[in-house]
Amino acid sequence: MNNVENDVKQKLLHEIKLLRDEMIFSGVTKGLNHDETLELSRKLDQALNIYNSLKYR
């Protein structure tokens, strides 16, 4: 793995943590079925899918 790939993965992990925290906060304050919570969940899923595709190639 080269440095660029490692940097991308680290930035993605940081984004995943932020999205997870935002989603949890939104779910607690606005509800699990609120549009914002669901959108954050979709974004988190996308980020996790990208991370996993990089991790296992």
From TrEMBL:
Organism domain of life: Bacteria
Gene Ontology BP, a term: regulation of sporulation
Gene Ontology molecular functions: protein dimerization activity
InterPro entries the UniProt entry points to: HLH_DNA-bd_sf, Spo0E-like, Spo0E-like_sf
Matches recorded under Gene3D superfamilies: Helix-loop-helix DNA-binding domain (4.10.280.10)
One protein family per Pfam: SpoOE-like
Name of the protein this chain belongs to: Aspartyl-phosphate phosphatase Spo0E family protein
